[in-house]
């Protein structure tokens, strides 16, 4: 039997599924694992998440999987489609443009604030550490590793703001966009190096304690990324 949708999964006979106590920890672990696979490109936009296969692979209960799917929907990573079940979200060009408009406002502010607080506590040391880690890709570009380092670069800037609400908002608007980047494999070296050069401009503003320069560089970086993304062949809807 093939339980590909959440509704079908609810109606499945219990004997067909390995029972597992539904706990918050199980749901958290499942949602985090699937999120990681999406962000790393192992699950790609348009791909169906087959409930039966995931239950067997992860050894989880149907209720835990259903709740994990709902969390991924809330994060903007998964769509629940009638008669198809859970599908990794595929964003349109308009959706990406809209998301980047929001990111420009939020992350432009975050870069400005980071420049203002760079010398508070251990902010400068933490930021420099992340910046140096990303610089390895100038000489040895590794796209999968770069995606992780890229998110860490943006993440540390937000962390320095010490604003949980801002952090939650930016997380929500970053996740759906980064998964699209993972589908691009042509011209990766150029994409990585261009992005790193723009990171250097952002970092220069932050490390100099120049809020205007940091904000401007971040906004330019995001719009360059948006322009590159909307031109990708990967944005064409899957057939």
TrEMBL record:
CDD domains: WHTH_GntR
GO molecular function: DNA binding; DNA-binding transcription factor activity
Pfam families named among the record's database cross-references: FCD, GntR
Keywords: DNA-binding, Transcription, Transcription regulation
Domain HTH gntR-type: start-end pairs: 24-91
InterPro entries membership: GntR_C (IPR011711), TF_FadR/GntR_C (IPR008920), Tscrpt_reg_HTH_GntR (IPR000524), WH-like_DNA-bd_sf (IPR036388), WH_DNA-bd_sf (IPR036390)
PROSITE patterns: HTH_GNTR
Gene3D superfamilies: GntR ligand-binding domain-like (1.20.120.530), Winged helix-like DNA-binding domain superfamily/Winged helix DNA-binding domain (1.10.10.10)
Protein name in the entry: Transcriptional regulator, GntR family
Species for this entry: Caballeronia sordidicola
